[in-house]
Amino acid sequence: MGVSMLKKFLILFLFSLMSIALMACGGGDSEETTADETTVVGDDIENATELTFWTFAGQHVDLFEDSAKRWNEENPDRPIKLVAEAYPFDQMHNNLLLSLQSGESAPDIVDIELGRFANYLQGEPQLEPMNEYVEPILDKAVSSRFEIYAKDGNYYGIPTHVGSTVMYYNTEVMDKAGVDIDSIKTWDDFVAAGKKVVEKTDSVMWNVGTTDWLMDYWPMISQKGTDMFDENGKLIVDSQTHIDTLQFLSDVIYKDKIAELTPGGMNQSEEFYGYFSEGKAASILAPIWYMGRFLDNMPDLKGKIAIRPMPAWEEGGNRSAGMGGTGTVVTNQSENTDLAKEFLAYTKLSEEGSKKLWTVLGFDPPRWDTWESEAVREDNKYYDYFGDNIFDVLLEIKDEINPLNVTQHTPDIVTEYNTNVAESVLRQQSMTPEEALKQAAETVRSEMEK
Predict the structure, then answer these.
(1) So which residues are the signal peptide here (predicted)?
(2) Which residues share a beta bridge with 207?
């Protein structure tokens, strides 16, 4: 095996290991595809220009299929033949990496999961800047969601959703405890409300996960304006802000006694779905895309779940964070670059495309100006389940979402937290937050220096 091929093999192996840590924290866009699937639109149109699209999320094909049909109706002089291919998560990202490295066989358009995106920005990105389409709409979008797919002033990825993190309250439990959920403004209020829930019901207020920090730790540090890495890529997970946040999570379980560890380790497990459906906890902290988890796995709670902003750390503080996500890009191997870029912008950035992110996928579109449109206010299964205030809440918190600083070493700290930090601090109570986070930081820094 030559040196070049050996290097590629090692990269593939490392990416496979990294994906184990990232699948829990970066998802939300849809269920992962488990087998190759191909959908073709426009193959019956003469002289249609072929554009290929890769994704790891079969649901995203629905969005692009809908878009291609609309495009061909509106642009009969420039029809496209869309060949959309859905692959398993690792296979798609690994194939893309090799294609970009070798300079051949990459698709025109491709989804890249948030946790993987930084790896495709290393060196000179083999992706096409989308500035001409992004910059005109930034003033009416949640701009932080575009920054995570940018480098050196160029916007490469088009986000699929904001991933606004909210609180889901079981109103049946909260009413029984005599708690007005709209009175919960801060985390101190949340703890006080939790004590009433524990005292007057058979439920706990909340659950703290140990295998998926996307559903508590990450959004809570983002609220404070920090991340695992700073904007310059420096690891800061052992900072006092991190230590205090992890201490809070420990305290709500063992000191305040309003929470318990999440059954199954995470709130996206069958064990947890059954537990929460039985009313054993009063709230869930999760992105807005978690609505689909309720519909699919907790249907009996229909009409009992209310969506509200996250509690702030202090009055006037941020009440949300943007979690998970997929950036869609145009590769520099496209033979029809201008058309591919225009079609991608049409699909996800245009007013109609933004509305389709909600009506087709059930996601909160990055363009907040569409959150007030009639299209996203029409009755659907989400309003039927949660009530009609979903976008009222989103509009309230749209300016309170900080950008994330995702780097090529994000998978390392995710792995450390999910396998060592949460286990030793929250489950075993064998280490203090400071001890565990400093140990994790040392481990990751040693990897970064290699």
Answers:
(1) 1-24
(2) 260
